[in-house]
Amino acid sequence: MASSLLVLATIFVLFSFGKATHPGLILTVVNNCPFTVYPAIQPNAGHPVLERGGFALHTLTHRSFPAPTAHWSGRIWARTGCTYSNGRFSCQTGDCGHRIECNGLGGATPVTLAQFSLHHGGHKDLSSYEVSLVDGFNIPMTVTPHEGKGLCPVVGCKANILATCPDKLQYRWPPGQGAVVGCKSGCGALGTDELCCRNHYNSPQRCRANRFTQFFKHACPATFTYAHDSPSLMHDCASPRELKLIFCH
């Protein structure tokens, strides 16, 4: 009996030590922009909504929250130019049905997207992340892993693409003659199957870079710019302690 208790105690100590030295993954969202942004979080199908799907984040503040301990995948973006008037919340970019808490809804394009796949790869506990301009651009964004093992680079887009966005891709608010608040993708601006990698063009062989994706790639090489862009841009980082998403880095 005494020896059994000793074994149980030893297992408990080892288990507690393992938990203490391998804490859960933390997601941190940082707003370095000189204005308030409203981060939005959308899970992929079958995964839970995190932080009710959205919240306000004032300039030079951050918000940290625990990631699910099981596999989770989804995306995060920033909503900009948000106002609340006459009982109605709305954003110039990234709006999710006029809600502060998106609760699983997607956002209106153009937006810069961070995409994540957490806790996959079995015992390797890999977390993958990327920054995508496939749906256009609305704000500079980077993802920085902390204390991970393996291939864990900082990725994203620090350039202010709004300042150089071609006329055909400019998204203005108010529509027409207002300020440029977003830069559409070629798909978002022109909507052809070829630019959207739809139907006949929905394959790695037929979905190719074009003059619009090359504009985004030149400004931000470490981002996805079309649906079948290089898989090497998605990075697998083993057991990071934190993934930090920074707006206006």
Automatic annotation (TrEMBL):
InterPro entries given in the database record: Osmotin/thaumatin-like_sf, Thaumatin
Top-rank taxon? Eukaryota
SMART domains assigned to the protein according to its UniProt record, in alphabetical order: THN (SM00205)
Name the source organism.
Hibiscus sabdariffa
Task: Spell out the PROSITE patterns in the cross-references.
Answer: THAUMATIN_2 (PS51367)
Q: Which residues cross the membrane?
A: none
List the signal peptide residues. Answer: 1-20
Q: Which PANTHER family match?
A: OS03G0233200 PROTEIN
Q: What is the name of the protein in this document? A: Osmotin-like protein
- Keyword annotations from UniProtKB, A to Z: Signal
CDD domains for the chain: TLP-PA
